[in-house]
């Protein structure tokens, strides 16, 4: 079925109205009318061709919230009228060891991305949430129980939320732990909210003194200016866990020195150029670990959404019209947003 969308036709062309073909729902499919779609830095990197292998036309968007319009005859997870979400994945092999552990994000045969993905065994493009509707296998559809008035602010949970929740859960962050969050942006602001709700003592790290009050308001117990050596030294060897959300290349040694015995720093931001290689001695003498993490599996994402609904957690957002996406991209490059743009897809009707 033909569906309205906004697409990039090349790395140098602005996004513009476009029509895409969505499949008719199969037995296990859910057809969703999209209400809101978050704007992720991955969207910008993709449509601008900054990552390899981009397929054009490109319809970005993997922070999708909508309402079920139709379901296939074998669907049991949701029903017509249900509020649902779709994140970064729309399929995986579902047979490998990772998928068997509900870790579809680490599918050994490669998960199928919501946009710029491929069909299993082929190279067909996939189109994301900058569109009026989407059809997804029910396994990759998430139930949303937040208040309907919060739906726009729920959208970023489907990427920014799960990207930070997954490492917090994997490394068992909870009461009695002193943990750090590096960076107070789209990912960092969610990490602070989630870690605070999990009961940890949260220390936010930023290079910008102007962000101190904002970090405290998000739930941080302390704020450290990471360029101030005296402030950093006060926290030496005291953290159980640090979540580093910064996507720019920077010195990791300064943060590794803050981990206590058996502490771990997990990096979730992907810089355009590599981080300087960290020194080895700090790892050896405190048995510290440096790790990475990417989004989360479907079961874990549902757990995160349910936790956020119970604790009244959403993202801090600015809602925009689809016609303003290029201006939003320009502001994102300047970090001029607190902390996530979300597109009201009703504006697509007039695009």
TrEMBL record:
* Molecular function via GO: alcohol dehydrogenase (NADP+) activity; zinc ion binding
In terms of PROSITE patterns, this protein maps to: ADH_ZINC, D_2_HYDROXYACID_DH_1
Q: Which cofactor does it need?
A: Zn(2+)
Q: Which InterPro entries match?
A: ADH-like_C, ADH-like_N, ADH_Zn_CS, CAD-like, D-isomer_DH_CS1, ER, GroES-like_sf, NAD(P)-bd_dom_sf
Q: Does the keyword Oxidoreductase apply?
A: yes
Question: Which UniProt keyword terms apply here?
Answer: Metal-binding, Oxidoreductase, Zinc
Please list the residue ranges annotated as the Enoyl reductase (ER) domain: 8-343
Q: Which residues form a coiled coil?
A: none
**Family per record:** Belongs to the zinc-containing alcohol dehydrogenase family.
Protein name, UniProt field? Putative zinc-type alcohol dehydrogenase-like protein
Q: Which organism is it from?
A: Paraburkholderia silvatlantica
């Amino acid at each position: 079925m033909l569906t309205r969308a906004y697409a990039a036709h090349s790395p140098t062309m602005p996004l513009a109205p476009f029509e895409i073909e969505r499949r008719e729902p199969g037995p296990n499919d859910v057809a969703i009318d999209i209400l809101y779609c978050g704007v992720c830095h991955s969207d910008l990197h993709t449509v601008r061709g900054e990552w390899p292998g981009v397929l054009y036309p490109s319809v970005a968007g993997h922070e999708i919230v909508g309402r079920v319009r139709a379901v296939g005859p074998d669907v049991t997870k949701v029903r017509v009228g249900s509020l649902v979400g779709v994140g970064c994945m729309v399929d995986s092999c579902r047979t490998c060891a990772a998928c068997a552990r509900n870790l579809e994000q680490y599918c050994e045969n490669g998960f199928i991305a919501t946009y710029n993905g491929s069909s299993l065994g082929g190279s067909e493009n996939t189109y994301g949430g900058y569109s009026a509707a989407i059809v997804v296998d029910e396994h990759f559809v998430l139930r949303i129980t937040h208040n309907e008035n919060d739906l726009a602010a729920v959208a970023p949970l489907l990427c920014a939320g799960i990207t930070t929740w997954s490492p917090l859960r994997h490394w068992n962050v909870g009461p009695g732990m002193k943990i750090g969050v590096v960076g107070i942006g789209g990912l960092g602001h969610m990490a602070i909210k989630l870690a605070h709700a999990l009961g940890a003592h949260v220390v936010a790290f930023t290079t910008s003194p102007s962000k101190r009050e904002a970090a405290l308001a998000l739930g941080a117990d302390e704020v450290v200016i990471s360029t101030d050596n005296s402030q950093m030294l006060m926290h030496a060897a005291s953290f159980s866990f640090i979540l580093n959300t910064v996507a720019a290349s920077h010195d990791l040694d300064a943060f590794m020195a803050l981990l206590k015995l058996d502490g771990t720093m997990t990096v979730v931001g992907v810089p355009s150029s590599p981080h300087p290689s960290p020194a080895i001695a700090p790892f050896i003498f405190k048995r510290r670990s440096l790790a990475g993490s990417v989004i989360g599996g479907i079961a874990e994402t549902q757990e995160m959404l349910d936790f956020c609904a119970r604790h009244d957690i959403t993202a801090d957002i600015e809602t925009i019209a689809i016609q303003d996406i290029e201006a939003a991209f320009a502001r994102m490059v300047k970090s001029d947003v607190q902390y996530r743009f979300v597109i009201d897809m009703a504006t697509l009707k007039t695009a």
